Amino acid sequence: MNNAIEVTNLSKRYGDLEAVRGVGFDVAAGEVFCLLGPNGAGKTSIVEILEGYRSRSDGSVSVLGMDPADGQRELRERVGIVLQSCGVQPDLSVAELLEMYGRYHRTRRPIDELIELVELDAKRDTRAKDLSGGQRRRLDLALALVGDPDLVFLDEPTTGFDPAARRHAWTTIRALCELGKTIFLTTHFMDEAQFLAHRVAVMREGRIVAAGRPEELGGRELRPTEIRFGLPPSRTLADLPELPAETVALEGDRVLVKSHEGVLATQRITAWALEQGIELEHFTVAQPSLEDVYLELTGERTEVTA
Amino acid sequence: MSTAVALPTRPASRGASLRRELGLVAWQVRYEQRAFWRNRARSFFAFLFPIMFLVVFASLFSGHKLPGGGGISYNDFFVPGILAYGVIMTTFVNIAVSTAILRDDGVLKRMQGTPLPRWAYLAGRIGSAILITLAMTAVTLAFGSLAYGVRIPTTTLPGFALALALGTACFTTLGVGIVRFIGNAEAAPPIVNIAILPLTFISGIWFANQEMPHWLREIAQLFPVHALADAFQYAFDPRTVGLGIRVSDLKTLSIWLAVGVFLMIRFLRQPLGEGG
């Protein structure tokens, strides 16, 4: 089987609200696929349709060759789910919960291995209600893996994590990927999508507005290089040399140069600065960030007035 | 997609898969039991609360005769009444409140995403509630007999056992069924108590209801609280002859059991993911 998930023309309506409007995508087996979008873009509706929690209004959906709307037990045997916020039996310990949920499955991964994977060794006999938020989230992940699934759904797996815990979770998710699992991820963090996903689909108001590898999303690799620096008080924009650039403008107290010939433009600017004997503060050369592309695509860019 | 090739499912015989699922139910009962006894607040309210009432009331009225009761002792009346209250606590109240919490915490949703069939999960929870009810019954009877000299039914045991079985079934299913009328878990204790407490007062659990207005007794008789208490009290009454079976009470319990089963099936079919 080549595709773990196939979605064609999927729609979901809640009364008058059209949360998902004709969405289509495929996820290859072994791939990490990410739905990226702001809250309310329709990500959770799609995930929960794929997981079998919600019915669809229109379109066709195939998950591991099955229709999740049929509620087949076989599908639940082979899919692991990490929901956005979902409790567990509070009075059972980590090891007991893994044992209990493991019994529901035909095939299961060893409990010790799972505990090690999510690094809850020290919390093995701690009751679920006494775990911290991050530990609970790691338990969620272990519980999703207990049946040795082929496909794992992760709905905003790191929301509410501190930066260190997020990095940590990413490493774990990467490790899953190396186990050959297909991973379907939703997030509203650009860096998460960039770090984890092989392919990203950006959603806005129920539609996919862009899809592709993170580095080429929204034609990112085709966009001009952005060069930023601060000028000393003695110089103005007019003093700069001729540059191969689309834009040369002030952005706050910095100069922003956008150029398709980034190397040449950089060389001209630095040569000029050296020749003039001046220091350019905060000199940076960058590709437009995924964040810029994302904000543009999702229409969330708000002009920052300095 | 309907064109996709269905994956080969393991060719298991019907008998083998049913055996496996019953095994899962048995395991689920064990996990539910473990969780129940570990949660002190929960086990106190469901299990010890009725026994505490027994001690308080029996101590207050020990040695008294039941007014208008034809000379039977207060304890012979009160122990079966408290037992009925205990059954309602360990089944109806316990199941309704804990299920509402599990639903609001998303545990039911999580369970729905596992291969465990929904009926098997529910059966595990019900099985656990029945065990708790039986334990509470045994402790209440032992206590009533040893400390307050209550006569344990012998010839009337069939009547008592039938009422216990039917009452447990009735209040268990009603406990599951009422969950859909409970908006959120915080509202669960007040809602189940509003449903139960007034009925206990007019159903002759705390005091004999012979002197109550006729119309109030007629209302009480429509509900299963009265039926269960009355069936127990009849079986415990020293003057009762025969098997101690009160047909009218069992009939009322059966009707409410049918209501409970209907509501429980609706609960089983209700999707948990929609609209959230």
Secondary structure blueprint with pairings:
The complex is a heterodimer of chains A (306) and B (276).
Chain A: E1 3-14, E2 17-28, E3 32-36, H1 43-51, E4 58-63, H2 73-78, E5 79-82, H3 94-103, H4 111-117, H5 133-145, E6 151-155, H6 163-178, E7 182-187, H7 190-196, E8 199-204, E9 207-212, E10 225-230, E11 247-251, E12 254-259, H8 262-276, E13 281-286, H9 290-297
Parallel strand pairs in A: 3-7, 3-8, 5-6, 6-7
Antiparallel strand pairs in A: 1-2, 1-4, 8-9, 10-12, 10-13, 11-12
Helix pairs in contact in A: 3-4
Chain B: H1 14-38, H2 40-61, H3 74-104, H4 107-112, H5 118-148, H6 157-177, H7 188-202, H8 214-221, H9 224-236, H10 247-269
Helix pairs in contact in B: 1-5, 2-3, 2-5, 3-5, 3-6, 3-7, 3-9, 6-9, 6-10, 9-10
Q: How would you describe the overall organization of this protein?
A:
The complex is a heterodimer of chains A (306) and B (276). With 306 residues, chain A is of the alpha/beta class. Chain A has two domains: 217 residues, Rossmann fold (3-Layer(aba) Sandwich); 63 residues. In chain A, 30% of the residues lie in helices and 28% in strands. Chain A has nine helices and 13 strands. In chain A, β11 and β12 form a beta hairpin. The N and C termini of chain A lie far apart (53 Å). In chain A, 38% of the residues are buried. The mean pLDDT of chain A is 88. The N terminus of chain B is likely disordered. Chain B has 276 residues and is an all-alpha fold. Chain B has ten helices and no strands. Chain B has one domain. Helix content of chain B is 71%, strand content 0%. Chains A and B meet through β1, β4, α2 and α3 of A and α1 and α4 of B.
